[in-house]
Design goal:
The chain is of the alpha+beta class. The chain has one domain. It has one helix and four strands; from the N terminus they run ββαββ. It has a four-stranded antiparallel sheet, with helices on one face.
Amino acid sequence: MKDCYCHTCDKEFNSLGIARHRAMHRDRQEDCKITYKDGKTLKYKFSQVVKN
């Protein structure tokens, strides 16, 4: 069952797949907004993270 949603990509994911999808945005340094199955919506500002 797909119970998580990436607003940035307009795609649904299961609770295991969303972690890898979020990491993909982090690797690309893209900001993203994700709603999790518990109803929480979080915005990630990966574009502001400085790579070492």
